[in-house]
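quick one before i forget lol
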Amino acid sequence: MTVKRVKNQGKNYATVTATFQVILLKALIAVGFSCLRLITAHPAFFYFSFRLTCEGKNVQQEPKEIVFLSKLLLLFQYCYLCFATNPHISVSQTGTMITIKTTCSMCQGSYVWQSQPYLLGRFPAGNLLLSFAILCAGASVYKVLLVFKHMGMLVYSQPTYYYHQRHLLIPSIMKFWCNYQAQILEKLNGKEVVLAGDGHHDSMGHSAKYGTYTIFCCTVGLIIHIVLIQVPEISISITNSNFISITLQNPQITPCFFVDNTTIACFTM
């Protein structure tokens, strides 16, 4: 009887253990699904999921990653035409863009792969976007390129950046600004507005050769004009108690401020 009782106790223990394991497994599955629902319901989940897609994005918004060359060449171990092994691989660099050309000794076919699309038909997108980012961030191109050099990243030289800035970026920014300014001035045409103008030069002890003059429209809360000029090119005259004229030797805009009880100002182009 004693032995039988022990066997029954063993069977009961095994049954309880198995039942407990099933219950624990079901609980873990339930908790897992609950956590999954919480994660997918969180806005950050959709944000990061959307970040790693290219749908509905242009070349500037498209995610970019740092890829090591050794890992990239693993994708070119076979011919893309006949799937033969070990095709001849040649690698070339154009700034931040890399071009890989494979030539197969079996089918004599060649395949060319480029890491970036082209903008304006001739400029690698990564090169222009990097120059645009440096310019918009106000960063030093020397420091940025030095960081890439220490990391071993492929990048262009400083003359390329200045070429992009002089021939592509600055003209595009000026065109956008002129169109934007024309739209604002068209809305303000014929209206009485309140203007605030001020100039900014280098601080004391530094060169004050250049100054920035800005005109701010208090009525709409927008800057309607900004110009960078040399200090000797500007003269300020006060003709009476309520008229101030600022004349530029090379004027892009000649602002005239009429100050009265209502602080109404107007300007002429």
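fyi The longest strand covers residues 222-230.
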